[in-house]
Amino acid sequence: MKISNPAEAFDRYEALLTPHREAFAGRPALAFMDGSAPDPALLHLFLIYYSAFGISMTRPVESWISRAG
Q: CB within 8 A of 31, min separation 6: which ones?
């Protein structure tokens, strides 16, 4: 299908994406992430946990940079 008008293509894209955005927005985990969870301490614990494990993802970066140089 050829669409000559970029605005028409964007509108079509938005219309197709809308139900998926609504389904995503209805997920219970998002209430947790946006701060509207019943217990804010749970969000803080999650962020500490995420940060503790996320740091290990940066360990190989130093070797990537030295090998690239």
A: 37
- Write the single-letter amino acid at 14: E
Q: What is the pLDDT of residues 10-29, one digit of tens each?
A: 999 999 999 999 999 888 77
Q: How many residues does the chain have?
A: 69
Q: Which pLDDT value is given to residue 37?
A: 66
Say if CB 3 and CB 9 are below 8 A apart.
Answer: yes
CA distance 29 to 46: 11
State the pTM of this model.
0.45
